[in-house]
Design a protein that fits this description.
about 170 residues, 6 helices, alpha/beta, globular
Length: about 170
């Protein structure tokens, strides 16, 4: 679990609700059972390819790419764990357009983040759901597959309990 500084928490609390979920999000199954998670993974596999491409992010003042090599792999694992995270993934385009930069971090040394020079965490508020934590990686100079300088890495629901660092 990530520990947030008071400064980061205060930035997150100031993010205002700008995004309204669509009616199609009602079909996302609830619960933590294996079948619910599998159904959410199916929804992600069907939905995310529609968003492949390059999108402008005002918070970064640059383009962000959503692709199958990084975005889909991470989304299947992280966003399928909860219903709210899956719903947020189906709204990724709107979240990229309305998010605010909270902090920048160094990438982990794992396989998924080795092609990034830094990791940026953005937050957007979504009515009825809460905060969407959008993790974006900035490609390092060696990354040749980059269509844009940034790549959508992960999107998850950010709960109040996580913010309070319990």
């Amino acid at each position: 679990m990530t520990k947030y500084t008071n400064k980061q928490r205060s930035k997150i609390y100031k993010v205002k609700s700008k995004i309204k979920p669509t009616a199609s999000t009602r079909s996302v199954p609830k619960g933590k059972s294996k079948s619910a998670i599998e159904k959410r993974k199916e929804i992600i596999n069907k939905t995310l390819p529609k968003y492949y491409g390059v999108y402008y992010c005002p918070a970064l003042n640059d383009n962000v790419v959503i692709n199958s090599q990084i975005s889909l792999h991470k989304a299947r694992n992280a966003s399928s764990e909860s219903r709210k995270s899956t719903i947020l993934l189906t709204m990724v385009k709107e979240i990229i357009a309305n998010s605010q930069l909270i902090y920048t971090d160094k990438p982990k040394t794992n396989k998924g983040q080795k092609m990034f020079s830094k990791i940026l965490v953005l937050v957007a508020a979504v009515r009825g759901i809460g905060w969407a934590k959008l993790t974006i990686g900035k490609y390092n100079d060696k990354a040749t597959m980059a269509q844009a300088p940034y790549c959508q890495y992960c999107i998850q629901h950010l709960s109040i309990h996580t913010l309070k660092n319990k």
